Amino acid sequence: MAQPHMTIKTREAGKVVIFDVEGEIRRSDAPQATLHSLVESQLDRGKRMVLVDLHGVSFIDSFGIGQILASYTSTQNQGGAFKLCGISQKLLLIFQITMLHKVLEIHEDCDRALESFD
Amino acid sequence: MTHGRIERYLISHGDVRGGEARAALNLAAYFFFITFTFYIVKPVKESALISFLSPSWWPYADLVTALLIGFVVALNVRLLDRVPRRTYLTASLLFFMAGTLVFGYVFDVHRAGAVMTPVIDPSGIAFIIWVQAVVPAIWVYAVIAFAFWTDVFVATSVTQFWIAVNDVFDAHQAKRLVGLFVTGGLLGGIAGSAAAALVTFARVLRIEDLLLAAPVPLALAAVTVNLVYAGRQRVDAAVGDGRIGAPARAGVLESFRAVRRSRYLLLLAGMLASAIVAGALINYQFKQVLKSAFESAAERTAFIAVLFLAILAVSTALHLAATGRFLKAYGIRWAIVIAPAVLLAGSLAVFALPAGLLLGWAALVRGGDKLFDNTLCQSVRELLYIPVPADVKYKGKIFIDMFVAKFATGLGAVLFGALYALRQFAYRNDGSMAGTLAVVRETGVLTLAFLALWLVMTRLVYREYPAVLKKDIRRKWASGDEAVARHVDLDLTLQIFNTIQSRERSSTLYYMNLFNLVRRGGLTPDLKELLGIRRDEAKARALDALFDVGGGSFHPGLEEALADEEFRSEVDLVFLLPAYQKVMGERLEGIAGSASEVDRAEAANSLSRMAPTEAALRALGRLLEDPSAEVVLYALMSAAVHRFPGHVPAVVRQLARPATRPEAQSTLAAYGPGVVDALASALRDEAEPLEVRRAIPEVLARIGTQDAADVLVEALARRSEDLEGALVDALFKVRTDRPGVRFRDAEVRPALLGLVRKACDLVLDPPGPEAETRALLDIRVRRAFELLTLLYPREDVVNAYQNIRQGTARTADYSLESLDILLDRELKELLLPLVEDLPAEERRRRLRRALRLK
User: Fold this and answer.
1) CATH number of B18-247
2) CA distances from B730 to B322, B699, B708, B709, B738 (A)
3) Does A63 touch chain B (CB under 8 A)?
């Protein structure tokens, strides 16, 4: 079965930039415009509130985690806020085991996540 | 808010912001009326002292004031403690208005020898008779009481004025506005002393009649101070962070404790005391010269009046032309030292002067002391209080300004009195200028000692000032790297994800990764549960029972096997076996060229544990060029273990691929200092893909040696727009992670100034819409601050930047103040207008001036 390709769509809700990620975030399927490079370009535009919606993500490998952490670091270094939402239960478990939930602000519900930026 | 004409003028021509204009103007007017009153009362006091007390008694008069004023201060503190600030300041002014009328009445009775006031009630006749009898009897005491009352008026009114300033404005605002306030005070002094001089020379009014006029400016002062406090809410709203706190409340003992507990306030008190003692001794030298130079008391009084008018006029001119500019250009650092240094030089001159020039010398030194006191010293002194926490400042300021200042005046009087008596000045000074010169020189030795002490204290205070300022400037956010490092083992996390991913790819790859995890101690119970290891073990044990294999295990527990030390040693030994290396050496080439991605990934993974034979390194080199990002990932991890120089070019090439870039960076960083030259070449080579060149600074930052940092600085000097961000981020990382690395000012500064100038250009010549320009400016400013950490203390720069960006108005202002101290003039002029909260036109004007543009 062919792996579903990763797509990243960008939209804005007030001051928050939302990245809707779909598919599998895999090294083997890494696009030229990675999540980190997209986040950095938004930071360069002065947007410092970032929400990544992972509703449509079925799998993340170490490359994907690297991208998420690099995006978090870049946002944090500029005094911004980086949050995740719509994360699957399995992924949440991995995040907990690896302590990533201590660093990344993770919301089950994306609307709540959006409100939390206020 | 609508503004009047004067307010609009101040906003457009002065460094006054919209929300501040009205309060600033009212405070300046308040100070004007106070000093106006003082300078019309002062000649009356001086005249009375000269006429009715011998000059040799002047130190005693000062001493009496110094001793008694403590009680007034105690009362003042008690009232401040119990009465709301606005009410208290108004009541104080009403009290002084009443005082001038009473003393005016007493002076009038003394002059006329009769009560002139009409009495309607016949019972008042007894009062008239009583007054006429008492006033002549207590006249000397009335004069001393009047002198004391004048000192009380000055001490309390000026302190109350600065307390009002501190109530309304914070450090940075006050620094901008202090010039306006001092101008108000100086103009009030000039107007008051000009009025007094007019009376002295033209005899339009009797000098005593000035007392009856004094309530008028005091009434106006009461009006303005009420306007200030009535407008507090509006100022507060304009500032936006509720900076006006509730008035602090303190007793005398508490005020003393506040000073004793703060090393900074103790030093401030010491500095002020040494300055006042030196000033008092200069004044005694001045008076001794005047005593000899003028025979007529009237001429002497006229000389004093004109001198003070001249001092105030010059003070105002100097203040308007120089004080603000001097403070902006050189900051508190040099402003604090100039007065004691100049006075020290001036006081030394008396030892080389002939007697004929003594009057001129005395007027210059005394005038200089007052001149500094009116301008630079006053501004600096008040600025030095600003960073002290509000409650401590309130308590400490009262104690220092009143108790310490008066103690120093008393000390000056005691020292002069003792010197006067011990050295028998009364007998040695025959009234000639030569005799006076000898006496003045002896007093001068004492003066020089206190001026030197003042100079030393300024250095001690200034050394402490930045630390006090920085106490309120705290980090607003941790860096991303710090936050991740605090909670997460990044390598282990990535390995866990690799393991999970490999489970669906190949059992061999999966076990290899599991083995690696166990070796790192990363196979936690939770992770085992997640990976399904426990379920597998349960299934295996169920099969054991089915096959009835007795005590032995059909499928030994995976965890135990992987964790077993002997098992791990055996695996390692297999990899070291010559036979294994021979067989694998022959096979590796084939596997590296296999069509199966899984086979190649397994080979790339296992290479990390193999001996670095020629065959193994050759195969690894081939796998590093593999089209599959997953194969390259494992090959890069193996390359990081072997660190074979011949693999560096292949690893560098992987920097171009987003999918392998982070691991390629980690691998190159694992090579360490040996790879710096190769990276430097690639960084310089414009033929290399930009992605590769952009990824190299991060690697150099992770290596973090002095050589790596030098390569980054050298690359930054080439001013490549494309690499600027990566280079600055990398240099900031070096500064953060490797405090021992040194950066030479001469190499960093040109690049830093170039970057700041580019930021200035964005303001002066915006390249696009406002939001876009703002974002570009933010990037440039952030990079400028990151580079500043290479030349200045990192914590100070980072804290200042974060508080300017996301702090309260107060911490942002403190941050600007700390940068003002920290940075040199050129950087300050260019950088501060970029980050200060300025009107757009003012920002452009200051930048044009800094860039020397028309």
Assistant:
1) 1.20.1250.20
2) 43, 8, 10, 9, 12
3) yes
